[in-house]
Amino acid sequence: MSKTTRLAIALVLGLGLLTWAAWALVHRTTQGWFEKDVRLRADLAVRGARRSLVAHWTNPSELSDVLAEITRDERIMAAAACSDTFETLARTRDYPAVFSCRQVGDLRRESRGGTHDLPGGEVHVSALPLEVDGSRLGFVVLVHDLSFLNRREATMQRFLIGAFALLAMSASALTFLATRWAFRRWSDELRSELGSQAPTRPEFRPLIGDVRALVERVVSERDAELDAGEWNPQRLKQTLQRHLHGERIIVVANREPYIHERARDGSVRVVNPASGLVTALEPVMRACSGVWVAHGSGSADRETVDVHDRVRVPPGEESYAIRRVWLSEAEEHGYYYGFANEGLWPLCHIAHTRPVFRAGDFEQYSAANRKFVDAVVSEVDSDDPIVLVQDYHLALAPKLIRERLPKATVLTFWHVPWPNAERFGICPWRKELLEGLLGSSIVGFHTQAHCNNFFDSVDRYLEARIDRELSAVVRGGHRTFVRPYPISVEWPVHWLAGLPPVARCRQNVSERFGLKGDALIGVGVDRLDYTKGVEERLLAVERLLELHPEHRGRFTFIQVAAPSRTLIERYRQLNDAVVALAQRINQRFGADGYRPVVLLHEHHQPPQVFELYRAADVVYVSSLHDGMNLVAKEFAAAREDEGGVLVLSQFTGAAQEMPEALLVNPYDVEQAATALGVALHMSIEEQRQRMRALRRHIAEFNVYRWAGRMLVDAARLRRRQRVRLAFDSTTDEAA
Ligand code: F6P
After folding, report:
1. pLDDT value at position 86?
2. Best substitution site from 348, 415, 529 to test ligand 1's pocket, by max atoms within 8 Å of Cβ?
3. Which of 152, 183, 216 is the last residue of a domain?
């Protein structure tokens, strides 16, 4: 028998015993009351008839009449007169024979009366003495009908039980209502304490602590879940559904993913810009849908939008919208070319180009940031949207968004390195930039080192509290988390679907550039930017040919150098320097139609770029400083054959994740040239082993995981807004 069954049986027995005891008590009490009542009645009856009884005591027939008169009382059934020696003198007609005067004498000796059962119901017999002047004449015996007593008792018991039941029911209902009300009040108070920045009720503190621990546990379980398994567009979509209830995402970036350009023949063509930001975010938007707010920079952009300045993309498989922001020429000059690319870009990259800061440029930068934010605000469909702010062009936007949409979740990702505090201090608007970024809920960088530099800058130039344990900055009651999210590429790359196998790509490239069948192909793909180390790369190629004469006539380095920011003097200088260098190398080592360096001075669409990656024996990424560099990751993603070697600058964020590449210092031309030589002589088996490891890493840490982690962190923040960190909040405010 189970413990519960035993308990239930004991409960039922106990209740039964209690009811029986209550019943017996009620019965005894009512019996006592009624017997007293009967005795009193008998006394009254005999006393009332006393005179007649005495007068006719010796006359049996007269005495019978007096007795009959007494029994007119409906409760007195019968009566008899007994002599002092208990002889029957007279009695009424239906007097029960069982109560003869002699038996009454016996009863009398024991007591004045008693209750007796007669067939047909209970009776009570009272024998009352009749005295005249102190001498007793005899006894008058009265037989009372007690059946009414039973009826009365039953009625009374029914009433009592009813009253008890009503009382019990009312008490239960009252208790139930009171408990519900108290519980509701308690939970309302708890909820408001959980949501409040500064809880006032100390009794809730242990509970808030428990809730917080529970949330932490759920979060760490979720983190473990996030780390496991493969990430793809479906999983990202499901993550968005599950953690953010499928909310629409708004990306705001300077660069748009599809640019509409009017070609010379008058047709409109769609250009995919050369931008790491676009490479990473475009597949994410295809998976999540939403709106991408960006500068409409294409010559046919205005013609291709609807009345709301929107155009649906990707062309032919529309799944999200670009919302274009129009900038005047002056704005574009001051904001994009000026403050962003002559100021912040060289400030953030250690590439020895002096940053230029002009007050007019900063004004345009601020105005442009406001314009982008206006567009974001007009695109949101709730008061707490999720906005992904991208890069150094929009450092002021997070604060502006926060001012207009205080409940928004703003995730800012800084695609370039963050300089050390000393260097950052060069910027005359360092405070404004930091304050702008701290409007974000989360600021993301590629590496922990950039996060640390950001903390140091905040520490040095702002009044703020840095919570290193939580990796957050707390300022004016607002907390901004600062986290590393190493960006990546889609996996598998959708552009590969339309490309032929590796051998065919190699053949195509060889034919296009007039290479021999046994040619060795080196590839570089960049915007023509001084941070990319293109000069250093070509110098390494030159040195390789000096060191390895066997490669002369056989090794060709194809450099895609997409024109970039050409209105800036430094970029024009770079262009000239690279062209001159390529010419010099070609003059030194070129012969009979052989050109060691092929400089492709135009923008290439992704399928052309991926064809080059597939054709390459070696890809050299020589950035002098780079937040991540997605060319390195794209190259590995393109090589399903596991062939080809990656030579990678140690100054890229990618170098931390890709140790199987040949890592080099691009400034060390000798070392880089040696690495190129090693790459060109590497056995197929070693190439496979290295490439397999690189591909495994990128497959696992692809861009869907990058976006998934940020969005799940955003979801966690939204939940935490409710379960606010009760214990830190007071100190937060102080900070
Ligand atoms: O890797 C990303 C990035 O370098 C961005 O920081 C930059 O916006 C983009 O690629 C290319 O530059 P632009 O937009 O000026 O062409």
Report:
1. 87
2. 415
3. 152
Same domain, 442 and 585: no
Residue 58 maps to which CATH number? 3.30.450.20
694 Cα–ligand 1 center, Å = 24
Count of C-beta atoms within a 10 Å radius of residue 685: 8
Range of the domain at 347: 247-484
Residue nearest to atom 9 of ligand 1 (CA): 275
Per DSSP, what are the bridge partners of residue 598?
Answer: 558
- The answer to whether the CB of 564 is under 6 A from ligand 1 is yes
Q: Are 533 and 622 in contact (CB under 8 A)?
A: yes
Burial state string for 160-177 with b = 16 or more CB within 10 A and e = fewer than 16: eeeeeeeeeeeeeeeeee
Is the CB–ligand 1 distance for residue 275 below 6 Å? yes
pLDDT tens digits for 617-626? 999 999 999 9
The residue-averaged pLDDT of 337-359 equals 98
- Residue 546 confidence (pLDDT) above 80: yes
Residue 264 CA to ligand 1 centre (angstroms):
26
Better-scored residue on pLDDT, 183 or 489: 489
CB 417 within 8 A of CB 450: yes
687 C-beta closer than 6 A to ligand 1: no
Per the domain annotation, does 292 fall within a domain? yes
Confidence band of 237 (pLDDT split at 50, 70, 90): very high
Q: What is the CATH number of the domain that holds 394?
A: 3.40.50.2000
Calculate the alpha carbon distances from 486 to 61, 377, 712 in Å.
127, 28, 15
How many residues are there in the chain?
735
Question: 457 and 540, same structural domain?
Answer: no
Does one domain contain both 633 and 552?
yes
Do 510 and 452 belong together in one domain? no
Residue 13 within a domain: yes
Atom of ligand 1 minimally distant from the CA of 336: 15
Residues 530 and 635 reside in one and the same domain = yes
Q: Is 276 in the pocket of ligand 1 (CB under 6 A)?
A: yes
**Does residue 111 have a pLDDT over 60?**
no
Query: Residue of the nearest CA to atom 6 in ligand 1?
Result: 415
β-pairing, 320-325 vs 386-390, is unpaired
What is residue 735's predicted lDDT score, i.e. its pLDDT?
33
pLDDT recorded at residue 451: 98
Give domain status of residue 214, yes or no: no
Average pLDDT rounded to a whole number, residues 590-594: 95
Helix (H, G, I), strand (E, B) or coil at 75: coil
Residue 629 CA: which ligand 1 atom is closest?
1
544-556 average pLDDT score: 98
> Could you tell me if the CB of 353 is within 6 A of ligand 1?
no
Ligand 1 pocket test: which of 277, 485, 532 has the largest number of ligand atoms within 8 Å of its C-beta? 277
- Locate 599 and state its tokens: 């400089």
- The number of domains in the chain is 3
The mean per-residue pLDDT over the stretch 76-85 comes to: 89
Residue 12 has pLDDT above 90, yes or no: no
pLDDT at res. 699: 98
**pLDDT confidence of residue 729:** 47
Task: State which of 92, 123, 152 marks the end of a domain.
Answer: 152
**Sign of the alpha-carbon torsion through 305, 306, 312, 314:** negative
Which pTM was predicted?
A: 0.72
Distances (CA, A) of 363 to 331, 345, 396, 620: 9, 17, 12, 39
Whether residue 416 lies inside any domain: the answer is: yes
Ligand 1 centroid, distance to 275 Cα (angstroms)? 5
**Residues 559, 460: one domain?**
no
Domain shared by 555 and 644, yes or no: yes
Same domain? For 524 and 655 the reply is yes
pLDDT for 179 beyond 60: yes
